[in-house]
Design a protein that fits this description.
transmembrane helix; membrane; transmembrane; 65% helix
């Protein structure tokens, strides 16, 4: 076992990682809003996604 190969993880999420993931999430939502929901049927997915975030 080589324990020195991987750095010890003090926390699961660092503030920098959270900000990066949040930025990616906002970019994804903004991109989805550019897509015509009616033709593709992502309206339900958008409602479910925002519902999951609010819960």
């Amino acid at each position: 076992m080589e324990s020195g190969s991987d750095p010890p993880r003090q926390s699961l999420t660092k503030p920098e990682e959270v900000e990066q993931l949040y930025g990616i999430l906002l970019s994804a939502i903004a991109f989805l809003q550019l897509i015509p929901f009616d033709s593709i049927g992502l309206a339900q997915l958008n409602q479910w996604w925002t519902g999951e975030l609010l819960c």
